Every structure is written in structure tokens, then in C-alpha cells.
Amino acid sequence: MRHGALLALVSAALFGLSTPLSKPLLDGLGPVLLAALLYLGAALVLSPGVLRRFVREGTTLPPDRPNRLRLGGAVLFGGVLGPVLLLSGLSLAKAASVAMWLNLETVATAVLGVTLFREQLGWLAWVGNGVVFVAGLLLAWEGGPAGWTAAALVAGAAVCWGLDNNLTAVIDGLRPEESTFWKGLVAGSTNLTLAAVLGQLVAPDITWVHALVLGAFAYGLSITLYITSAQGIGAVRSQMLFATAPVFGIVGAALWLGEGMAPLQVLAAGLLVVANALWLFDDHGHSHHHEATRHEHWHRHDDGHHRHDHPGLEVAGWHCHDHDHDAVEHEHPHVPDLHHRHPHEPGGST
Fold it and tell me: Domain boundaries in the chain?
């Protein structure tokens, strides 16, 4: 739990800082081209590791059709549509305001996670989600009536990323860096082609390099860390921690763009801290059954679910490889990770 929470917070910092850093690049590149370069930068920084696995194993794609469809949906919503909508909103409003509206992603992820993706939340987690929503309203208040168009665009991006978050959290048989690589490569190439069709493709210059480097950290590394967190503690809980990203965006906007900090922004930041603490006390546990399965993801051998042997090797800590699980029925507190995405049975505790 602590490991997944830390990864989500680092991911939030990297992505939150990308909002003020992207703002100056929009003037020369435009939303579609900038979205393309950010995701191509993500694919570029992750390509060495992905290529090494391709040479070693011959594939870096999910092994079955359901997981390929999940990856395709994540690419479409999270890689193609989401960033274009976000950057379009950023072109119309202050970076700090856009960072604030990104709190809507948490609400979208929670609603979609519970209604479509079988996540379970206790009442404390719902209270925390409500506090996040209130914080978002306080932050958006600063935008005024002129910011409603920008807010609508960012809200559209939030819904796209809510779908993306839930889809990537349940992709099985693909490492987080591989999911991010394919998202970056396909989405970046698609938006680059779209920029050319729309006549928005400008000649490469130093801003292209800045965008690629920013994409490597703010999208490549950030998304990889987020997926790893979501697969460990569930998309909704990871997203509630990721909701701290606007705080980093506001601080970055103040430092790099000279945008001031309003009292409502400070109040909302405090609410976000409270909200992210609430879910840590949210408890969910009941008797549940695991079917026998074989898959690949990052895991440890001290979590009660991974007790396979490594012949001739002594393995400790986090590692990733293809492994088998025997069928088992047991009861323990758990979060909706890759092993616990089941409907809540009557009589269990939440």
C-alpha cells in the first residue's frame, strides 16, 4: 500500500509540473502538435527497455484479445483525445486554473471505476472523493465565467483519462512501461498525422526538443509510475493520490509563470491533503475466491499471493516475470489490484 501510494505521488508531481511547463510551448506548437510530441517523448524514453524485451522474448503486446482491446481503449482515450482536450483548455486559461480543474479526473475515475470496472469503495473513500470534488469546485471558482469553455475542455479530458485509468489498471500480461510505450507511440503518431492534416505541423526547432524532453518525464515516467501504482492499489485509490497533481501545477505556475496564489487555492490544497489521507483508513475485506491463472506483473513474495519458487535463485523485493497462481479461497483486507477485481459478496465487510 505504501509503495503504491508513493509511486502515485511521484507520478502526480511529474504530471502536475507539466501544466505550467507546457503553457509556453503552446504558442509555437499548438495543442495537437504539442500533444503528439509529449507522447512521442514518452515512447522515446521507454523504447530501450521495450526493445530489449522484444529481442529477448519476441513480443511486447498483451497475449490475448481482451487485454489488447483494453490497451487500444487506453491509447484512444488517454493518449489521443485526453491530451488534445487538456492542451486546448490550457491555451484558453491560466496554467494554475487548468491544474485545478484536473481534479475532475479523480471524480471521473471513481464513478467509472465503481460503475463499470468492479472496484469497491468504503464510505471513507467516498467521503475523501467528495472532499476532492469540493476542492475542485473551490479551485475552479477562481476561473470566473470566462473560463467555462476551458473548464469544459479540461472536463472532457478528465473523463477520457478516467476511462484510461481504469483500463490500464486491469491490463494483464503487459508491464507498465510497455503500456506507456505503446500509448506514446500510437497516440503520438496519430496526433502528429492529425497536426499535418490540419496544417498545424511546423518545422522542427528547439521547442520540439523541449516538448520531447518534457514528455519523457511528465508522460513517460509519470504514466509508468501511475500504472504500476494502479495495478497495486486500484485505479480509484491511485487517482485520489494523483489528485495532488494540481498542487504541484499551481506551485509551478507561481514559480515559472509568475501566477499568484489565491487564498482559495491554499484552502483547496489543504482539502486535498485531507482527502488523500481519508482513503488510507478505508477498509475492505471479505471471503473471496481466486481462480488458477498465469500472468505477469510486478510483485513481491510476502503479500500472501505470490509464493512460487525461483529454482536456483534467491529473490527478494519487487520483481516482474510470468508466473502461475493456484486456485485459493481466503479472507483478508485488500484493495482492487490485479488479484482482487471481483463484485462484493454479501456478508463481507467494507
Answer: 2-285, 288-333
